[in-house]
Amino acid sequence: MRADVHQHLWPTPFVEALRERAEPPRLVGWTLLLAGEPDYEVDPADHDVARRAELVRADGLDLALVSLSSPLGVEWLPPEEAAPLLAAYHDGAAALPEPFRAWASACLTEIDPAALDRELRRGFVGLQLPATALLDEAGYARCAPLLDLLERRGLPLFVHPGATPPAPPGAPAWWPALVPYVQQMHQAWFAFRAYGRPRHPSLRVCFALLAALAPLHGERLAVRGGGRGVVDPDVFVETSSYGPRAVDAVVRVLGIDVIVHGSDRPYASPRDPGLGDAAMRALRTTNPHRLLHGERSDTAAIRHSRGGPR
Questions:
Q1: Which bin fits 101, alpha (ψ -120 to 50), beta or left (φ > 0)?
Q2: What is the Cα–Cα distance from 52 to 266, expressed in whole angstroms?
Q3: Which of 77, 152, 188, 283 could form an S-S bond across to 261 if both were Cys, CB 3.0 to 4.6 Å?
């Protein structure tokens, strides 16, 4: 199936739960209030299920994976605050019609793998965590029960930017997306290499927004003693918010087999990377299938056995 692995669509129960809150994250009408970002006017059409399904078909896709918006900070709320929001998200997302499926989420202030397991058994494709949960060895120790569960069930992890600190005074509206989001994803990429993969040898993981182009720093990693940048065939990056130059550069470093199509809709629109029909099939069909189901292509297996492209 042709897939977009990264979209956001707030089901009605989740919208209602946000409106019931008195503190951020909350919705007042359709105005989103967050602690670290300017107030944001949400377009109701962005969360209209029928309209969004039409857009998936117009994009030429068969499947769109939606997830909780981690910059809301829901995962880091106290358990008694996170629980109703997570329940509303999971109940609403589980009820979405085709072509939608969803990533599960989890509370990070009280780790509960049994709660995650219940959601995964409802048909969620894997777990999304904010990058802020996976920035160092302590983060991987905290999240280990959740990641151990994913490994046992053979399901993937999706790493997405999380909540941000307040922007500097006078910062433009794009500041969070271009500075803290990028910093988080860059650090999360290298934290997985240092701490995540040794602890979770069979975990499949996908990093949003091309891991903020962190793979392009492989040469510097080698110079600084981090070892040669061997391509891990079970570590994927998705393409949201980037175009032909960035995608082409990452393909040159990682190869085509670990790049998957993601749009971040409704916050961004899908872009054609201009790599040709065969590459588009890899990004939209072959590679998302491997991410979700763990079936390695012959070319990926050969590349892994040879230690990655030189």
A1: beta
A2: 9
A3: 283
Nearest 10 degrees: Cα torsion 183, 205, 150, 139: -20
Take residue 305 and report the two structure tokens written for it: 């056995």
CB 266 within 8 A of CB 8: yes
Q: List Cβ<8 Å contacts ≥24 apart for 273-281.
A: 273/239, 273/243, 273/244, 273/247, 273/248, 274/244, 274/248, 275/244, 275/247, 275/248, 275/251, 279/251
Question: What whole-number distance in Å separates Cα of residue 264 and Cα of residue 267?
Answer: 6
- Report the 10 Å Cβ neighbour count for 132: 23
Nearest-Å Rg of the Cα atoms of the chain is 18
Does residue 25 have a cis bond before it (omega within 30 degrees)?
yes
Cα four-point dihedral sign 167, 171, 177, 180: negative
Say what angle helices 180-191 and 137-153 make with each other, to 10 degrees.
70
Question: In angstroms, rounded to a whole number, what is the distance separating the alpha carbons of residues 221 and 282?
Answer: 28
Distance CA 152, CA 116 (A): 13
Cα angle 1-121-233, degrees, rounded to a multiple of 5: 50
